[in-house]
């Protein structure tokens, strides 16, 4: 399988945080989600990938031939959008269109107008224009997304694109991701970070879980769903089940947790119910385990 | 073959300011001028039409202050990594080259605006229409002090925190204002040679501070 991005041992040190030793391969032609709690290092990693922040060590290879030194080529190939304040706040749709047209070779004004219409933002060439500072958070994000999706790029990197969107707009965003990937089947890739895992599950092919500046799990969602199982049962059997569980929660009557699929038979013998986890359940389980490991340290 | 990843300076300005270079120039020129006109009209009306009520130094001070803050605000927009839009600007065509062009252009526009003030004042003086600056020397005092101020604005880019930069700038601004007033009263006794050397030195100051601040920005902010 071709890789869109091959990240090797990327490190970035801040005073109070270190993104350390990141090794990941992002498959080409798929949508990859970066999942992690706040402060896990998702934004730092995205900024490094897009050249917004410089890494202290490590290498990156894009599309099998470009490196971090080929920024001039990569600038046109990567469509990047930050989670907030992507454009100056005194800009409006018209100004966004004018500047994007100058700032990138592959910006399509007609497509931008169509996307603005889809996102119900209004006409970018209209006379009455609202400045970004007067828009709601959701409409601001829609503007950023319309601008970045109106470019003909090979890699889309979005930081928390769904966080300020309403459920309908999230659904529309998922469709847009699918359309973006389908337009040039196998040649385009999407990377996005999210906390809204349930809403974005439909569009997530590949997932990377991060905690404390490190990658703690990664893989295709379908593979991960086969690797892990969701276990739940009565509180009376929880003590016996705990040694097999990677992480769990319990109350007076029941417990729930995730475990490795290889322990399914042993857990089934304890009279527990076993299911295939959703990405949301998998994420909670994996991130909770990371949190428990951190607390134990 | 590599694609041309460079933007011309007028497009670099458009990307950083969201508006055209011509509009920026007009705004930077007209806003301080309109403040001076408002001041002159108010004083003129309040004094019952007495021309003597308008002193050279007060007109100069108004022009100096308004343009000083205008230059600073325009400079901050291109030279602040903590303002909205910074992440977008880091990813645009040309990258650092686009930043450097926008930064140098806005400094050049500030210099041109002062040059235009000076030329208009000189023309008004020569044509004997309105003696806004009484003597060419007074006009020259404004030119020198504004050039020093632009060099200071450029040099203060080394302070990353915008609030601290504004405070530092405000403090320096008053020192440069004193320089302007001092020059205004001593300029008559200076020879033309001193004027020319001072003008050249002030321009050199801008060039040096621009070079220092851009290389600092690249190393400490852009590539960090």
List keywords for this structure.
A: 297 residues; alpha/beta; 6-stranded mixed β-sheet; globular; B: 224 residues; 8 helices
Question: What can you see in these coordinates?
Answer:
The complex is a heterodimer of chains A (297) and B (224). By secondary structure, chain A is an alpha/beta fold. Chain A is 35% helix and 29% strand. Chain A has a 6-stranded mixed β-sheet, with helices on both faces. In chain A, strands 2-1-4-5 form a 4-stranded antiparallel β-sheet, with helices on one face. Chain A is globular. The model of chain A has no long low-confidence stretch (mean pLDDT 93). Chain B has 224 residues and is mostly helical. Chain B has 8 helices and no strands. The interface between A and B is medium-sized, with 28 and 23 residues.
Question: In summary, what is this structure?
Answer:
The complex is a heterodimer of chains A (297) and B (224). Chain A has 297 residues and is of the alpha/beta class.
SSE layout and pairings?
The complex is a heterodimer of chains A (297) and B (224).
Chain A (H helix, E strand, L loop, with lengths): L2 E11 L4 E10 L3 E6 L5 H8 L7 E6 L3 E2 L3 H7 E4 L11 H11 L5 H10 L18 H13 L5 E4 L8 H17 L5 E6 L2 H4 L5 E6 L2 E7 H7 E7 L3 H4 L3 E6 L3 E7 L3 H6 L3 E3 L3 H18 L1
Parallel strand pairs in A: 3-8, 3-9, 6-7, 7-8
Antiparallel strand pairs in A: 1-2, 1-4, 4-5, 9-10, 11-13, 11-14, 12-13
Chain B lengths: L8 H9 L3 H26 L9 H23 L7 H6 L4 H31 L9 H20 L6 H25 L5 H31 L2
Helix pairs in contact in B: 1-5, 2-3, 2-5, 3-5, 3-6, 3-7, 5-6, 5-8, 6-7, 6-8
């Amino acid at each position: 399988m071709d890789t869109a991005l091959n990240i090797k041992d990327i490190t970035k040190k801040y005073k109070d945080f270190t993104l350390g030793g990141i090794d990941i391969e992002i498959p080409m032609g798929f949508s990859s989600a970066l999942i992690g709690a706040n402060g896990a290092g998702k934004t730092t990693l995205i900024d490094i990938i897009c050249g917004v922040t410089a890494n202290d060590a490590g290498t990156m290879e894009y599309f099998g031939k470009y490196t971090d030194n080929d920024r001039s080529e990569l600038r046109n190939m990567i469509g990047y959008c930050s989670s907030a304040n992507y454009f100056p706040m005194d800009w409006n749709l018209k100004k966004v269109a004018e500047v994007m047209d100058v700032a990138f070779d592959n910006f399509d004004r007609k497509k931008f107008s169509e996307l603005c219409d889809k996102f119900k933002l209004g006409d970018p060439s209209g006379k009455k224009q609202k400045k970004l500072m007067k828009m709601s958070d959701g409409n601001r994000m829609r503007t950023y997304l319309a601008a970045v999706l109106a470019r003909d790029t090979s890699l889309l990197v979005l930081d928390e694109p769904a966080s300020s969107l309403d459920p309908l707009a999230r659904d529309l965003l998922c469709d847009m991701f699918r359309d973006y990937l389908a337009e040039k089947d196998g040649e385009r890739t999407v990377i996005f970070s999210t906390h809204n895992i349930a809403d974005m599950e439909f569009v997530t092919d590949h997932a990377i879980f991060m905690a404390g500046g490190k990658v703690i799990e990664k893989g295709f969602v379908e593979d991960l769903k086969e690797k892990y199982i969701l276990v739940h049962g009565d509180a009376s059997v929880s003590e016996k089940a705990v040694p097999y569980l990677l992480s769990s929660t319990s109350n007076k009557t029941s417990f729930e947790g995730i475990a490795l699929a290889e322990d399914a038979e042993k857990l089934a013998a304890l009279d527990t119910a076993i299911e295939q986890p959703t990405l949301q359940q998998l994420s909670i389980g994996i991130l909770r385990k990371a949190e428990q490991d951190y607390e134990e340290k | 073959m590599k694609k041309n990843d460079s933007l011309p300076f007028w497009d670099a300005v458009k990307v950083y300011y969201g508006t055209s270079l011509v509009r920026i120039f007009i705004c930077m020129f007209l806003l301080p001028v309109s403040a001076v006109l408002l001041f002159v009209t108010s004083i003129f009306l309040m004094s019952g039409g007495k021309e003597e009520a308008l002193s050279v130094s007060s007109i100069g001070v108004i022009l100096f202050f308004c343009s000083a803050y205008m230059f600073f605000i325009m400079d901050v927009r291109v030279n602040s990594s903590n303002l909205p839009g910074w992440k977008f600007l880091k990813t645009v065509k040309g990258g650092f080259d686009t930043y450097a062009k926008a930064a140098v252009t806005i400094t050049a526009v500030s210099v041109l605006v002062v040059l235009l003030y000076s030329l208009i004042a000189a023309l008004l003086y020569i044509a004997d229409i309105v003696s806004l600056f009484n003597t060419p020397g007074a006009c020259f005092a404004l030119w020198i002090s504004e050039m020093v101020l632009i060099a200071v604005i450029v040099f203060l880019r080394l302070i990353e925190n915008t609030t601290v930069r504004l405070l530092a700038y405000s403090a320096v601004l008053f020192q440069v204002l004193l320089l302007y007033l001092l020059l205004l009263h001593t300029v008559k006794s200076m020879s033309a040679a001193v004027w020319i050397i001072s003008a050249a030195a002030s321009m050199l100051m801008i060039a040096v501070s621009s070079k220092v601040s851009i290389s600092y920005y690249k190393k400490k902010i852009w590539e960090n």
